[in-house]
């Protein structure tokens, strides 16, 4: 970037703008510990400057400059994904939105709140609770994920089964467009606010959101079902989502996941050998009573056991799924959007893959619609083991292949899932997404290198061939082998 532009930005923003190499280095990754030898040939992840704006006007000024000078602009807040959704690919300006973290307005009588896009979901939930309100849904990463970030990442999580994705709860979103203009997007605007869902920051920077919320629940209740196999678990889930007394959240875990939770002191020995489904309900006394009856009916229908005494404990740990990484330096895995009707078949094939590769696979997930679940299948990894880590990435590709076989696709694209983009969208859907990008951001300034097309070295055909070859070679991967650390 031009040195004079950098100096002008540093003068304008003072200590809220930095070109310090050490400080910028923190923005070169997200939760994914990807080795440099894999990143550097594909993306230039070190931003030229990091700016921490405090309001929409400042974001708009930065975006206008970026548009005029054709400087790549990447927005980031929680950085709580693993696909480099908010990591630069072409240097440029990185806008850190964590300072936009205030509640702007509350209409308690109408159950509406307006909030800065950089506020985390857990901050918002706690603030609303003090006012007698609550969010309708939030991500499992609520302690780090922000309101704006979750909107542009599709926004399915806890509460989505009952209340829908977060875009359904958004009334409007104040958005800085790629040309630097500010628009209040809603259902009737052009473009509509729905275009933001899944755009991953490539169509604009969300700075404020007006959101429907709900009265704080009077009561809550938590059950935990014990199931002997994946088919039984699927039957339980299918029964639970069809009831009128639909739960707030359904979270499931396989024995691999529960065994690790037991080793970490987070579950009982009995739980360690089972498939489980956490059944969480809240609302009025009548609503939770009806949900509890639904739970009992589902237990009977699936011939399942009850671990109800552990239900409350699992609910209290709902934000700590990634504590599972304690057994290894890091984790590799695949997060898959999967039809519920294919859940048992998917887990069966995962078990066959585990028997073949002995990776210590573990799967868990959330049911987020009446038809779909988000499933995470993981294994331990160590990015310091260069060859082993590369082979681990090839094994992740095999997990995605198993998901695709059963009608699934990656949840989120960013950079690292661009080789699978044709699985995420039909040709017609992708043509429409590219049309939106060209219409709003013809110079590809806003968060370039994501979502729409894989870079050359991640070309789907080349990627598939090379990953399949690595996965088929003699296993040198050194991570989690079965139940033992090596």
Can you put this structure into words, describing what you see?
- The protein is of the alpha+beta class.
- The protein has helices at 3-13, 21-25, 36-39, 56-69, 121-129, 147-152, 160-163, 230-242, 255-263, 285-302, 311-316, 343-357, 386-405, 421-424, 427-440, 460-472; strands at residues 17-18, 49-51, 73-76, 93-96, 103-107, 112-116, 133-134, 170-176, 182-186, 205-212, 214-215, 219-227, 249-253, 275-283, 305-306, 330-339, 362-367, 372-381, 409-410, 480-481, 484-485.
- The strands form five sheets. It has an eight-stranded antiparallel sheet with strand order 15-12-14-13-17-18-16-19.
- Helix 8 (230-242) runs antiparallel to helix 12.
- It is globular and about 70 Å long.
- Mean pLDDT is 93; it is low at 481-486.
Which key terms come to mind for this protein?
486 residues, five-stranded antiparallel beta sheet, eight-stranded antiparallel beta sheet, single chain, 16 helices, alpha+beta
